Amino acid sequence: MRKLSVLLTVLITLLQMQEAQAQCTIARPAIKLNSTSTNPLNGKCLINLDLYFDMDANAGGKYVFIHIWPTGSYPTLTYSNPPTATNLVNSVATIGFYHFGGTLSLLSSYTPDPSIPNFKYPGLTITKSAGGATGFDRFTIQNITIEGTAACTVAQSFTADVWQSQSASAQNVHCFSRGLNFYANDPQLTAFMICELPRQYRFQIKTIDPAGLTVNYKVFIDNGDGIFNATTDNIQIGSGSNIPLDNTNSFTYNSPLLGYLPYSNQKPEADRALWLVVSSPTRNNESYARIENLCAPLPIALGSFNAKRVDNKTELNWTTLSESDNRGFEIQRNTSEDPSQFQTIGFVNSQSPNGNSADELTYQYEDRAPIKQFALYRIKQIDHSGKFSYSQIRRVNGNSLLNEIYPNPAHDKINLLFNQRNRSYQIEWVNDLGQRLGQWTTRGQIELATSHLPNGVHRIRVRDMETGQTETRTILINHMQ
């Protein structure tokens, strides 16, 4: 009987170990570095960060514990039983949370051994969202502070274990994942946004690792919840790959000023923060930085804005998808290369009652001023409090589309020569009754037969297929020449 009891005990232990090693899969670890400071007692780096990771959704899992060590002090535990204070003597953090049946909450104590060092609870928050793969959940634990082994000028590597328990007192290990390495304070990311419309941003990636680093980056628009998740924050607006950070560039990459039209000029995206996501082939974790949007919210959601030259006038058309406290629009024109030389040429009042609307509204304006070479147009939206924002800039060419038409009057043929040889043009032949007699598409120049056309006044209507600019010329057909 004793032999049978021992055999059953061994069998149960083996089954528990087999089950533990088959589950608790952790994926996509990431760090958002919030701040660093120096511990005045020992000169070591205190690192405040947010920890991100995916974990497979285990139907039986309830209690999750995370243990973190400096990589140089990491022990390899078997997890046949929950770790105790003896096992965690060199750990810098232990965090626990409960997730089961729709409930998610941080644990205020480590029930397997309340005497463990560095249990983290006050000031932390936890969030669960969609994982990157089917059957996974994404967890974000914010405001974790851990102490490194050296000064903040040294890249700090840490290793974490994660284990899960089904029991109410977390006295057994249901599954575990160990040896998850991450760098907490390297690379270091800084970024800012420029509020003038359309919005732009710039960022810096810097490594303090003397061996250097090769990095890739992507930039996404936050969906409004303030936490990065590639599944839900899925509007990507920028990327770069294989960027070296070494002594040739002071271990630093400074991005140029970057735009992200059309999102940078429209609601709700222009009012949201951005996420900089950095990875490296030599690092197990991604690094995140939130590009804060401290700009005043756009008072309107601009749907479209177009400008085109039609005969001797410029037609401006725009739509708003929604308006808030909108007084109206200044129409501004610039005929120089100096971007500071915009001048107000008109004003269009808001069509919405009291400046507020959730419906799409359409606006138009005609500028009949002659244009010699080109003109730049923009609209300046102004709300009732005096705040304003600018649209994108639209350019129209003032030069005639047609350089020469010959002969005129025409007998059996006529030649059209255009100013821009590399553009595509649509040509319509219209008689004096407004009836279209033919249509062609060409580039640079074209010869048209006129021998079949009746005598009289005809019109040629030309449209630049790139800019939309149109022009109409009068032609006389005279077969009696």
Write a short abstract of this structure.
With 481 residues, this protein is mostly beta strands. The protein is 4% helix and 51% strand.
Count of alpha/pi helices: 1
How would you classify the helix and strand content by structural class? mainly beta
Q: What distance lies between the first and last C-alpha atoms, to the nearest angstrom?
A: 126 Å
The overall strand count is: 32
- Portion in helices: under 10%
Biggest sheet descriptor: 8 strands, mixed
Uncertain runs are 3-22
- What shape does the CA trace take? elongated
How many distinct domains?
A: 4
Strand content: over 45%
- Biggest sheet: strand arrangement: 6-7-2-1-17-16-12-13
Describe the structure.
An eight-stranded mixed β-sheet has the order 6-7-2-1-17-16-12-13, with no helix packed on it. Strands 5-4-3-8-9 form a five-stranded antiparallel β-sheet. Strands 20, 21, 23, 24 and 25 form a five-stranded antiparallel β-sheet that branches. Strand 23 (374-383) and strand 24 form a beta hairpin. The chain is 4% helix and 51% strand. It has one helix at 2-22; strands spanning 26-38, 45-56, 63-70, 93-100, 103-106, 125-130, 136-147, 157-165, 175-183, 188-194, 200-206, 213-221, 235-245, 252-254, 258-259, 274-279, 286-291, 300-310, 313-323, 326-334, 343-349, 361-367, 374-383, 388-390, 394-397, 402-406, 413-418, 424-431, 436-443, 445-449, 456-464, 470-477. The protein has four domains: 2-183, no CATH class; 188-291, Sandwich (Immunoglobulin-like); 300-397, Immunoglobulins (Immunoglobulin-like, Sandwich); 402-477, Sandwich (Immunoglobulin-like), CATH 2.60.40. The radius of gyration is 34 Å and the shape is elongated. It is mainly beta and 481 residues long.
